[in-house]
Amino acid sequence: MQDIRVGFNKIEIISQDIEVLRLIMLNVSQSVALDHYSEVTNKLLIETNLQTQYLEKKGRLYISGRNLKKYIGRTLNLKSKIAENLYIFDAPPETWEDEALNKIDIGLKKTFDLQVRFRHIQENLQIIKENFELFKDIMQYRSSYVLEIIVVALILLEVINLVIERIK
Q: How many CA atoms lie within 13 A of 50 on its CB side?
C-alpha cells in the first residue's frame, strides 16, 4: 500500500485490498451525492431568486402562504438529507488505524473537493433559508395588516350601529 497514488482522474493501487476499494467507493459515492444535492440546491436557489426579482420589481410576493411553506419544508428536508447521507468531515474508522488508508482518504477528499463543495451547498441553503424567512415575515405583515383593517371596519360598524340606535 506504499505506492498508492491519487491523481486528478485516477487512483493507482497495487493490491485489491477490500478496505481500499471500500474507501474509494465511499468517496466516489460522496462526490456523486454532492453533485445531486448541489443540483437540487441550485434549483431551489433559482426559484428563490425568481421570488426576490419579482419582489424587487413589483414590491410584493406572488407566492402563496402554502407554497412558501412547501419551499421551506423542501429546504429543511434537503438539509436533513444532506446531514444524514454525507460523512465528509468524518474519516471512516478504518483510516484511524491505517496510515495508508488515511492518506488515500485525504487524497480522495482533496481530489473530489468534497469539503469545498459541501460548504458551497451549505452556503446556498443558508441564502435560501434567509430569503424564505424574509418572505415569511412579509406574508405575516400582510396578514396582520388585513386583520387590522378588519378590526377597524368592525369597530366602525359598531359605532355606526350605536349612532343609529341613539337616533331612533
A: 9
Phi, psi angles (nearest 5°) of residue 12 = -105, 125
- 45 within 8 A of 125, measured Cβ to Cβ: no
| Kind and range of the H or E run holding 143 | helix 114-167
- Phi and psi at residue 18, in whole multiples of 5°? -60, -35
Q: Which residue has the cell 434567509?
A: 130
Q: pLDDT tens digits, residue range 39-66?
A: 999 999 999 999 999 999 998 888 888 8
Does the predicted model carry a pTM greater than 0.90? no
Is the Cα dihedral 118, 124, 127, 132 positive or negative?
negative
The residue type of 80 is: S
- What are the domain boundaries of the chain? 5-141
